[in-house]
Design goal:
The complex is a heterodimer.
Chain A: H1 19-24, H2 29-35, H3 39-48, H4 61-70, E1 76-82, H5 91-98, H6 100-113, E2 116-123, H7 131-143, E3 159-164, H8 174-181, E4 205-209, H9 210-221, H10 224-228, E5 237-244, E6 250-255, H11 260-267, E7 277-282, E8 288-290, H12 301-306, E9 315-320, H13 325-339, H14 345-363, H15 368-384, H16 388-392, H17 395-403, H18 411-417
Parallel strand pairs in A: 1-2, 1-4, 2-3, 5-9
Antiparallel strand pairs in A: 5-6, 7-8, 7-9
Chain B: H1 12-24, H2 32-42, H3 50-59, H4 64-73, E1 85-90, H5 93-96, H6 100-111, E2 124-129, E3 141-143, E4 146-148, H7 154-162
Parallel strand pairs in B: 1-2
Antiparallel strand pairs in B: 1-3, 3-4
Helix pairs in contact in B: 1-2
Classes of the chains: A alpha/beta, B alpha+beta.
Family (chain A): Belongs to the complex I 51 kDa subunit family.
Protein name (chain A): NADH-quinone oxidoreductase subunit F
Keywords (chain A): 4Fe-4S, Iron, Iron-sulfur, Metal-binding
């Protein structure tokens, strides 16, 4: 199996509390390169590498930066979304733990590329133990002139601020996140206005995930190994976090194109006690599920799309035969029921009622009409919910309709069979 | 026994601690979530007493309703007193399929408490929380910002609890 350390190249190579030790391994050289480049050219480098947003939305990053630059209003800002709340997603934790200076460097490059005045890192409260290392990294970068006034003699002023979340999954959604930074409850709002035009404090805002940003300094340093990895349509590598019933849960960097089997049985050490796989969920709680037929499919955007799956945040949650499909769906539904902010009716009530239907299926007390109503709710919620949470909450259920139709078998049919 | 939060009286010592927290946040009211998290850390029972919320509302250009909107919206902010070592048990799918029911049962049995109650010495409470991003250590608990896991046997749970006695 190919072993690749591109995004994770710096892991363990420097003292995460010392900017000197980071600079000894070439730290901040990419920033030096970046300030000799036009922002548009930096965005072009990202576009050439085909980077799609690694938080889950998969929006092309180069296009995002290019669009952010094009907004003519003043006082741009950049946000790093470190609020990864998707179940079984913990890759950003590893990036911040092992390579905090790289993230700060990436924030400065992003600020330069989109002409920003301020950068914000919004980190989930669950990672508050990582705050000291980011605060330290910001402070030391400021002392060396990589942040603050007149950065590297360019006359450009830019600062990075660290904000903490407080345990709300919905704050990973852009509009909720900005409200949280603004000092309000993190309830999402309607779009438009879009972030790029009017986001944080009504300023033009460019939001990126930790992993997306972390790739940038490496890419400007040496893009060749990244461009050579992966497949034609999914270039490069991805951080995946594997969990559930595997022997070696953890974060791994993999080249796109590796098979799911190589990840689950190779890197993650196979299934506990050699049980059979019941299902795998990709991309967090809002991701879709598959059965073990996915094992020999390549882990890439194009092949996943063909199989009605998404890479999303890169989480791979493996559930073995000891848990039933319906139990898995109930657990997932509990999560959304708890995390729905309750603002809009489709999400608040939809999640609640689907939870009741799932309970009925579990108990065998459902009717055919229940199944039909549940399918209708699962179809209507994405169309009518206010934000991404309600839009994606039923992804697992909807994919279960296709992959495990027997779980939702009509009552009359089941009785006829026996 | 959980003490009555309405009887909490703010001391000068706590007032000066809150002042210091406000200084650290540049008296910037947009940083209210961070301020509340820091204040909560200063209270041994890890919650925001009413008196403290009122005090912050006096010091910042914020309405009390906005402060309470935050306290009640965010799971990490608490209105009611908790144990000095609140045990947050992860209830994500990754922990559930790794038998966090057994872990929860062990905690309840060893401590003799359920959700919403506190041990007789005010030391522990048990709370269910959504995923805290430690799925590689499932089934896990989090006590005062530190993650402990995987906890698969009753003996491991006992050893963990003994650390806090």
């Amino acid at each position: 199996m190919q072993k690749i350390n591109y995004i994770t190249e710096n892991f363990g190579k420097y003292d995460v509390f010392s900017i000197d030790s980071y600079m000894n391994i070439g730290g901040f050289q990419s920033l030096q390169k970046a300030i000799d480049m036009e922002g548009e050219d930096i965005a072009a480098v990202l576009s050439d590498a085909g980077i799609k947003g690694r938080g889950g939305a998969e929006y092309p990053m180069g296009r995002k930066w290019s669009q952010a630059r094009a907004v003519k209003r003043p006082h741009h800002c950049v946000i790093c979304n470190a609020d990864e709340g998707e179940t079984c997603t913990f890759k950003d934790r590893e990036l911040i733990t092992n390579d905090p200076f790289n993230l700060i460097e990436a924030m400065v490059i992003a600020g330069w590329a989109v002409n920003a005045e301020d950068g914000y890192i919004y980190m989930r409260a669950e990672y508050s133990h990582l705050r000291p290392r980011l605060i330290n990294a910001i402070k030391q970068a400021k002392e060396r002139g990589f942040l603050g006034k007149n950065i590297l003699g360019t006359g450009w002023d830019y600062d990075v601020h660290l904000y903490s979340g407080a345990g709300a999954y919905v704050c990973g959604e852009g509009t909720a996140l900005i409200r949280s930074i603004e000092g309000k409850a993190g309830r999402p709002r309607m779009k438009p206005p879009f972030m790029k035009q009017s986001g944080l404090f009504a300023r033009p805002t460019c939001i990126n995930n930790v992993e997306s940003l972390s790739i940038v300094p490496h890419l400007l340093h040496d893009a060749v190994p990244y461009m050579q990895a992966g497949t034609k349509e999914s270039i490069g590598t991805k951080m995946v976090s594997v969990g559930g019933n595997v022997n070696k849960p953890g974060v791994y960097e993999v080249p796109f194109g590796i098979t799911v089997r190589d990840i689950v049985y190779g890197l993650a050490g196979g299934i506990q006690e050699d049980h059979k796989i019941r299902l795998i969920q990709f991309g967090g709680a809002s991701g879709k599920i598959s059965d073990d037929r996915i094992l020999d499919i390549s882990y890439s955007y194009e092949d996943f799309a063909k199989n009605n799956l998404i890479i999303g945040s890169g989480s791979i949650l493996v559930i073995d035969e000891r848990t039933s499909v319906i139990d898995f769906l109930r657990y997932t539904q509990d999560f959304f029921l708890h995390e729905s902010c309750g603002q809009c009716t489709p999400c608040r009530e939809g999640n609640r009622h689907i939870r009741i239907f799932l309970e009925k299926i579990k108990n065998g007390t459902y009717t055919d009409e229940d199944i039909q109503t549940m399918k209708t709710f699962a179809r209507v919620m994405p169309m009518s919910s206010l934000c991404g949470l309600g839009e994606t909450a039923q992804n697992a259920l909807k994919s279960a309709f296709d992959v495990f139709p027997e779980v939702f078998a009509s009552k009359t049919q089941t009785e006829a069979v026996g | 026994m959980i003490e009555d939060s309405s009887k909490f009286e703010i001391t000068d010592e706590l007032k000066s601690k809150i002042e210091k927290i406000l200084d650290n946040h540049y008296h910037d009211f947009t940083q209210i979530v961070g301020i509340l998290l820091d204040v909560q850390d200063e209270i041994p029972q890890h919650y925001i007493p009413k008196a403290a919320a009122f005090y912050i509302a006096e010091k910042l250009p914020l309405k009390l309703s906005v402060i309470y909107d935050c306290i009640t919206f965010y799971d990490a902010l608490n209105e009611e007193p908790r144990g000095r070592y609140p045990i947050e048990i992860c209830d994500s799918v990754a922990c559930k399929v790794n038998d966090n029911d057994f872990l929860l049962g062990s905690l309840k049995e060893l401590l003799g408490i359920d959700f919403g109650t506190v041990t007789y010495d005010g030391r522990f409470t048990i709370e269910k929380v959504s995923c805290f991003g430690a799925c590689d250590r499932a089934p896990a608990v989090r006590i005062n910002k530190t993650v402990y896991g995987p906890l698969k046997t009753k003996e491991q749970v006992r050893k963990l609890l003994e650390q806090f006695v």
